[in-house]
Design goal:
It is a single chain. This protein is mostly helical. The protein contains 18 helices and six strands. The strands form two sheets. It has a three-stranded antiparallel sheet with strand order 1-2-3. Strands 4-5-6 form a three-stranded antiparallel sheet. Helix 9 packs across helix 18, helix 10 packs across helix 18 and helix 11 crosses helix 18. The longest helix has 27 residues. The protein is globular. It binds coenzyme A.
């Protein structure tokens, strides 16, 4: 095996070298502390490989994203969200029989226990939908056993996929004060999601094929993104053998943040702010460039993609199609297009490779199809469930899996002597 040599305080250490199937190279420092007393320091884990994984490959410099070896462009064009979720969780594309069985199971687990409905009533209808989602996902753990038996693991993965869709739709209905609409077993996963959110019980309702197609694509594009913040959270929480529902609820919490899944909501709030400021987008572009200001253009830039975000490229085409077909005329969308143009031309953004990311276009699509802004991150969470489940399963099935437990460099006070309270 290839080895790297590290010289530290005049001593040499040999570090094993690992190479991935796409040529990625890693130096193995797992024994370094035991051998040398030193740990590695990498805040934000930008240079740390926390696991070996066969699920998703990203080359951020080239703008490449593969799920199980299949290019995202091909999956977005030819596959469906449900087929992609099977691919991620089970590792191969399903046969006709496997896909039929999987769909059947998803449909038959999409109802929520009636007692869960009462839990929605205990949460203020003004609560952020991500808080409600995290609460209800964690609560599933009170309704279903979680053991390490393979049959339980498979059943709970199905339950999470199926029931999160219903939880998301009920959360939305509760926010807008409408009665819940129950799942319809005859509809596809994505059509049923649209039906449960947009149907008013007294009205006839037809799911728009255009909206179904676009939303399905959005879900595919969000399905996994290797060791991002929420997925790492899921792996870390799950590494203690916490139950699957609590583990995924932790992922929902991490996704909620503005620098992660919450960015799609922030994009629309930023556009709203610019609209209310006479649509003066140039002022905000300048503010984003000003090092004395902490304002950032939300929906621009990415930790990994430094060329372009392949998901954003696919979604831009869908975004253009939706806006043209729905004939949407909204000043927010005009501001978005102006920001996109400036960012692609202005040297500040070009030099730093700050392209519009997936959250920029998904936010615009959600707005165009009439989703309230605070539901945007919930849609991201629904899309990310297969990735969380696949990564969790991979971690739990790994031989010799250990609890995640990073080290630190302590920088606090030393040798303090306790002073009784009356003497302080
Ligand atoms: N607007 C303006 N400037 C930005 C920027 C943005 N959205 N994103 C990054 N920059 C600038 C930084 O200020 C920095 O400039 P400097 O080199 O002059 O100091 C440079 O670009 C590099 O950014 P950095 O913060 O090192 O990138 P990162 O990898 O740590 O952060 C993000 C990546 C995604 C967190 C960051 O780009 C961001 O906050 N974007 C907005 C939020 C967003 O859309 N998140 C969703 C991601 S899918």
């Amino acid at each position: 095996m290839e080895q790297a040599k590290l010289i530290f305080r005049d001593k040499e250490y040999l570090l094993p070298v690992h190479e991935g199937s796409e040529g990625e190279v890693a130096l193995d420092i797992s024994q370094l502390r035991a051998q040398s007393g030193a740990v590695t320091y990498d805040p934000g884990y930008g240079n740390t490989g926390a696991c070996k994984s066969s699920i998703t490959f990203i080359d951020g410099d080239k703008g490449i994203l593969h799920y199980r070896g299949y290019p995202i462009e091909e999956l977005a064009e030819k596959s469906s969200f449900i087929e992609v979720s099977y691919l991620l969780i089970h590792g191969h594309l399903p046969t006709v029989q496997e896909l039929e069985k999987y769909k059947h199971e998803l449909v038959h687990h999409s109802l929520l226990h009636e007692d869960m409905k009462k839990m929605f009533e205990g949460i203020p209808s003004t609560a952020h939908p991500m808080g409600t989602l995290a609460t209800l996902v964690a609560a599933l753990g009170a309704f279903y056993d979680d053991t390490t038996k393979k049959s339980d693991i498979d059943a709970n993965c199905i339950r999470l996929m199926a029931k999160m869709k219903t939880i998301a739709a009920f959360t939305y209905k509760r926010c807008i004060g409408q009665p819940y609409v129950y799942p319809n077993n005859k509809l596809s996963y994505t059509a049923d999601l649209i039906h449960m959110m947009y149907k008013v019980p007294s009205d006839q309702f037809e799911v728009s094929p255009l909206i179904e197609e676009v939303l399905d694509k959005v879900l595919i594009l969000h399905a996994d993104h290797e060791q991002n913040c929420s997925t790492s959270t899921v792996r870390m929480a799950g590494s203690s053998h916490a139950n699957l529902f609590a583990t995924v609820a932790a992922g929902v919490g991490a996704l909620w943040g503005a620098l992660h899944g919450g960015a799609n909501q922030e994009v629309l709030e930023m556009l709203e702010m610019i609209k209310n400021d006479n649509c003066d987008y140039k002022k905000y572009v300048n503010l984003a460039k000003d090092k004395n200001s902490d304002f950032k253009l939300m929906g621009f830039g990415h930790r990994v993609y430094k060329n372009f975000d392949p998901r954003a490229k696919i979604l831009k085409a869908s975004c253009d199609k939706v806006l043209a077909k729905l004939g949407v005329n909204d000043p927010l969308l005009e501001i978005a297009m102006n920001l996109e143009r400036v960012a692609l031309e202005d040297p500040y953004f070009v030099e730093r490779k700050l392209y519009p990311n997936v959250d920029f276009y998904s936010g615009i699509i959600y707005k165009a199809i009439g989703l309230p802004v605070n539901m945007f991150t919930v849609m991201f969470a629904l899309g990310r469930v297969p990735g969380w489940l696949a990564q969790w399963k991979e971690m739990r099935e790994e031989a010799g899996q250990r609890i995640s437990r990073p080290r630190q460099i302590y920088t606090g006070a030393v040798n303090q002597k306790y002073v009784p309270i009356e003497q302080r």
